[in-house]
Structure formats: C-alpha cells, structure tokens
## 1
Amino acid sequence: MWRPCQRRCVHSSVRLMKKLGGKTPAEQRWVLRQLRDPYVKASHAENFRCRSAFKLLEMDDKFRLLQPGHSVVDCGAAPGAWSQVAVQRVNSAGTDPELPSGTVVGIDLLNIPPLDGAHFLSSHDVTDPSTHAKLLELLPNGRAHVILSDMAPNASGFREMDHERLITMCLSLLDLAEKVLQPGGALVCKYWDGILARTLHERLSRVFGGVRTLKPNASRKDSAERYFFAKMYRKRIK
Ligand SMILES: C[S@@+](CC[C@H](N)C(=O)[O-])C[C@H]1O[C@@H](n2cnc3c(N)ncnc32)[C@H](O)[C@@H]1O
C-alpha cells in the first residue's frame, strides 16, 4: 500500500522525467537548477518576470536608491523584472496617490513586454547615441536620478572575452550618465569579475563620490557576476 507522501514523490518524479525528456545534459542541468532555485519559485509567487528582481530588491533595501518620484533608466531591461521593481519603488504607476509619481524608462536590444508605469525602448542599443536622444525626450527635464544596468552580452563561453565585452558596455554608461544623470545621482551596473574590473572602478571613482562592489545573495555564488554601486555623481569637468 502506497503512503500519500510516496505517491506525491512518484508523481513529482514522473513530472520531472517529462521535463527532462529529450534534453541535452546541459539543458537537464539548467532545468534542475531552475527547479531547485528558491528565487525562481519566489519570482513566480510574486509575479516577477524573472529571479533577477530579487537582486535589485536586495540592493535597494540596503541602499534606498529608488525613491518615490525618482526618474530611473533601466539598461538591458528585458524581460522587465528590474523595471517591475523600479515601478513599485518610484511609484511610476501612481499606485500610491499620496506619494510623488516617478518615471521608469527601460531599454533593451530585445522586445520588452509592456508594463504599467514604464516606457520601454525595445530593439534599442544602450550604447547608441540615437537611443540617448530618445531617452532624453522620455525623461522629465531630460534628467535621471538613477541609472540601472543589468546589461549583459550573449556569453561566448570565453570568460576573458565576455568579461572585456561587459566592461566595455559598462564604460559606455559613463557617456550616458554625462547626458542624463543629474548631479548627486546614482548608477548600479553589473559586471563579470576579471582583470578590468579595477579599471572600471577607477573610471567610476573619477565621477562619483563613492563606489562599492556588491554581490547580492540572489546572485549565484558560482557566477562571476558583481555589481558596482556608484553614488553622488558629479559631472565631468571638461
Ligand atoms: C540579464 S538580462 C537583464 C534582465 C533584466 N534586468 C530583468 O530583470 O528582467 C540582460 C539584458 O541585456 C540586454 N543587452 C545586452 N546588450 C545590450 C545593449 N547594448 N543595449 C541594450 N540591451 C542590451 C540583453 O538583450 C538582455 O536582455
């Protein structure tokens, strides 16, 4: 006679076999990791578009960088989980009429499904000056309080090359900051750790009052992913 817990166990094993069927070993490892990941489960429960929402929530809980009424640029925004967090925190959907209402503009090379409270520039390259011009039109007074970047290139599998490409993308955010970030503003950018991280830190330190490295709990321990949190922006003096 089967006990209920044994029956449940057999059912979930059958479901698991179905999910893994026909997949390569690498794909099977990915499915298993997703199924076991508490942040994936929590993102489904809380209706976030992906688990990365928890990285931003954690950083924002600690540093309070997103305030009601703020204008935020979300670089590499697809599928839109960071924008969901930003919309909540800056009140850009006007959910709380007592609080000032902010602005969220998300940019990505890919399509970003619509989200109440956010403007999206889908199929746009953050590093392209023509994107900057469109962004200026969407931001109130052409100014942002915060630039967020969770951008990442498609990984080639060559660690050094991927690291260098992402650092180059992060450095391009300094041009964007010069155009839209207001004095005193903040920047959060993802990078993959490696030899050029110090160069990026040094370049950020030239124009921000403080720069620190963050590794949120939601960021997988085995990944080289890190974030720089730079605050107190001062414009470059030419
Ligand atoms: C890790 S995903 C971002 C996830 C997002 N923060 C979220 O919470 O939904 C990285 C994104 O960066 C985007 N990306 C990479 N290079 C880009 C570029 N030059 N301009 C705009 N987006 C870019 C990719 O298309 C990808 O969607």
## 2
Amino acid sequence: MNRQRITVAAIALALAAFPAAALVANNAQAQDVPVTELFQKKCLTCHSPTAAPNLKGPDLKGVFGKSIAAQKGYAYSDGLKAKASMKWTAANLDAYLTKPKDFAPGTKMIPSVGDAAQRKAIIEHMKGLK
Ligand code: HEC
C-alpha cells in the first residue's frame, strides 16, 4: 500500500468513527453565515441601511421600533400604509419577513426569509441600524 492510500483509509476510518461530529460541524457552518452577509445579499439590493436614499424599498435606518410605513419620502403601498398605526416590533418584523403578503395584504415587498434563525439574526441586525 502506498502512503496516499493509507491516508485515505485513515480519513475514512476517522469519519466512520465520528459521523456525528462531522454532522455537527456541517450544521455549524450553515448557521455561521455572518448576518452582515445575509443582510447584504437578501435585503440591501432593495434597501439602504442608512438614511438615504430610498431605493426600490424604503431605507431601513432606525426602522426597528418605529411606526410602520413611516420612512420619509417613500411611496408606500396602500397595503403597508394600512398598518401605519402599528410599530415594527420584533414580532411584527418576524411576521412580515415570513410572509409579507400575509402580514400586509397588498404590500409591494415580495422577498421573504423562510429560515427562522436567519429572520431572528436579521431582525437583531436591524436594531443596530441607527
Ligand atoms: C426586491 C426588493 C426587496 C428586497 C430584496 C427586500 N425588500 Fe423590504 N421592502 C421592499 C419594498 C418595495 C418595500 C415597501 C413595501 C410597501 O410599500 O408595501 C419594502 C418594505 C420593507 C419594510 C417596511 C419598512 C417601513 O418603513 O415600514 C421592511 C422592515 C423591510 N422591507 C425589510 C426587509 C428586509 C429585512 C429584507 C431582507 C430580508 C428585505 N426587506 C428585502 C422591497 C424589498
């Protein structure tokens, strides 16, 4: 047997002995996508994180805890304006990001975030947009 084969066999043995460890490592990797990267990919194509400008969607500066549909100078849908007496609490943001049209029928925002852990991380991140 040459040296390479021995190495391969040793790795196979190690994986066979610790399949659970390998699985845990994979899960950790999936959840370890930094929230800044998630936010960049999933949100910042349509939203600015600072006061200006409004892009396809309204800017998200200070949106956490603020009244719904209250960013300056943005033409909201009637669907979101109908919610204007409510605030963007964590629960409301979670519901909106889960299924925008269920939370605010008629909203112009199409994308959603199916993964609960990702929603939570994104909402935490939005608290910091001041
Ligand atoms: C394809 C474009 C697009 C993407 C991507 C997108 N949004 Fe939106 N978003 C919109 C639009 C358009 C609105 C305005 C909705 C309306 O007026 O009904 C909106 C509205 C919002 C609002 C309400 C703001 C307010 O002032 O009341 C929040 C909060 C929000 N988006 C968060 C997010 C987050 C977080 C992400 C990423 C997970 C995201 N959006 C991704 C287009 C997008």
## 3
Amino acid sequence: MDCEICFEPFSDNLGNHVPIIFPDCGHSFCKSCVDSLENRKCPKCRKTRFQPHEINVEVVEFIQTNARPVCGGCASEYNIEGNHNPRILPDCCHTICSTCIDDIADVEIGCPTCFNPNFISLFDSECFIKNYLLIEIVRNY
Ligand SMILES: [Zn+2]
Ligand SMILES: [Zn+2]
Ligand SMILES: [Zn+2]
Ligand SMILES: [Zn+2]
C-alpha cells in the first residue's frame, strides 16, 4: 500500500510516510507529501481542504497488525458498499462504520475512539465522507 504521490509504502510510525487523511474528501497521502503541498487542494480530487488533516489511524493500525479492519464502535468488519462501510467523523478524523454513525446520530454520543463530543446529530451516514484508503485495504484483504 503506497502513497499515490511519491509511491513510497505507507509506514506505521510517526515518520515521513505515515498516512494522513483529508476529512474533506477522504483521500490519504503520506506525511512528507502532505507537508510539501503548496495549496489547500487535494492532489487527487482537487477539492479544497477546510478541515485539519490527521493521521489515518485505522490504516496505521492495519499496517501494524495486518488484521482485517473492524469498526471501533461495533467491532464489525468493514465492508465496501454495505452497512458497515467506513466513514470519517469530521471533527476528529476517526473512522467508524456507517451503521454506528447512524446510531450515534440517533443518541448523540461522541466518537467511540476518542469520545470527541462535538458531533452534529442531524446527518445520516450518507453525508459523511468515506475513508478511501481503508476501503482499498478491505477490497484487497
Ligand atoms: Zn508520499
Ligand atoms: Zn481528495
Ligand atoms: Zn460500527
Ligand atoms: Zn474520534
């Protein structure tokens, strides 16, 4: 699994090639490529980025364990188009499955990974951006 800009493999440490996710579009690139970007547009889809980017921790966990990715909320295996497809929580950039997003929206609790409470309850999961690198991992697992 390589960065699409520099073609270096993603790493699981906090070094130059750790995967960074853009929550505005769901695409991920390595840290050194993100650091060298000169504008706020995603190099893949050209969407302007407004939210801060974060480490794609679910992908880092996969690199470390090589275990099939599961949702931190319900422990279900992620799927690609089904009811456990991986969606990004925009405030903290953690990923949970679409079913958990819908459950969270119903009961207004925070992110199951970091307990971040600043979460808008009006959306359904279709409004949330997918974690595309995690989908690639699920597709190829
Ligand atoms: Zn790169
Ligand atoms: Zn993008
Ligand atoms: Zn879930
Ligand atoms: Zn979180």
## 4
Amino acid sequence: MDKDLVYAINAYYKLKRKFIEQRKKDKANVIKKCLKMNLKPNEIKEKVKTTVNSQKCIHCKKSQPGRPGTIFRRKDEKLKAYCNLPEGNKCDFDIEINIGYYESNDYLLDLNTTDLKESRQKIIKLKMDSLYGFHDDEAPEVLEEKFNEEVSNFNDSNYQNIFYLKNLYSITANPDKKNELENVEKQMFELIKQIKESNDNNEKVNIYINNLRPILDRYYLLKYDTRYVEKIDNTDIFNYITREFNISTLEFDLGENTPGVQKFEPSYGRK
Ligand SMILES: [Zn+2]
C-alpha cells in the first residue's frame, strides 16, 4: 500500500479519536455540572445531548448549537471528515480518502478490529438501554432502527475480518503449503542424491531433465512469488530475480476505485 495513503489513514483516525475523546470530556464535564445543580435525570440527558450536538469543530474550534462541529464518516471505501459549520462560517477542514479494500496490511486489520469492538459496545448499550428503559426521548422504532443498523455494521466488519484473516493465513501459514514445500524438498534431495551416486552420465541428465527440473520449478513457485531472468540491455549479463513473499504480496485491493487521498485539507504535516 502506498505509504502516503497509510499515513493519511493514520492521520484521519488520529483526528477521529481526538474528536471522540473531546466528546467524552465534554459529556463528563456537563454531567458533573448538572449533578452539582441537582438536575433531574431527564434534564441531564437533555443537556448532554445539546452539548454533544454542539461540539466544536476539531480544526477551527468554532461551534454552533445543534450542529456537531466536525463530521467523520466511513462509507463504502471512503473515509470522510469535514467542518460541519454552515456555509460562510466553515473552515477548510475537508478530508476524503479512498481506502480501497486491502488485505491484509496489519494496520487495516487492526482498524477493522477496532470498528468491530466499537460496534459491539454500541450494540450492548442499545440493548441495555432498551431493556432498562433509558430511551425516554426516543421512540422504540427509532431505537430498533439504530440497533439493526449497528448489527449490520458489526456483521460487515466481522465479515471483513474473517476474509482478511483467511487470506493472510492462506498465504503465510497454510499447513498444506508448508507440507507440500517439505515434501518437494525431500524429493529434490533424493533426486540430487541419485544424480550424485549415478555413474551413467545419460542417466544423470535424464534424471535432471525429467525429474529434478519440474520439482525445482514447483519448489520456487511455492517459495517465491516472483522468479524470472532479466537480461541487462547491451550486455551479456543476466540477472536471476527472486522475491520471497513480502508484505505487498499480502495486500489485495478489492475496491472499485483507485485507492488514494482525494482531499486532505489542511495538509497533515507532510510535503
Ligand atoms: Zn471548522
């Protein structure tokens, strides 16, 4: 995966975490204040809601009642974030990253796992809220809709994780492949031994061409993802290129659009 893209995704989630942390702090502060004022639970809930909905923009620090200052949204293959103040008042904070679907940069697997955990927490909370009736200002059907949406988010993340892990496993830790490799190595050594021990040159060549050569091909295919001979222009020099499985082998872009950073305003400290 492109380093800039990884960097941008990292920066995006850092900002998102900062925004969520700020929201938690704002919530805790307003609850403390309300408790000092001896407000009733319903009044506290109202104040908390107003505070959360009026959180400052993470970039310009401006706020407007009833309008969260920054919107972070992950939809399909895009990560988006922007200043949510009204036109004329909003700042230039505006991010759009097409992440593609990669398997399995460990980082993305981690991010997905975080999503999964967050989603699970939300589901538990919604379930508890509905069980204990902490939803006085929300109609049951609204609650149910939220619940269903969250369950669907959870299933998406879960499906993605299983898919990522399966692919990672099939490439790196597949016991079938390991067994085959061991088997092929054994055959190779056996054939080499036969060639060494034979006194008949014809037999040696035959074993090499008919038996050892195909085994060697299989061996390299299992062990390396790339193997080719490259001739350096205008010379008689040939380079034999092999490349063992590396992290880029483990990345698959399954997205429909080319992954990349569409917008990241203002710049995130990288030239
Ligand atoms: Zn702003």
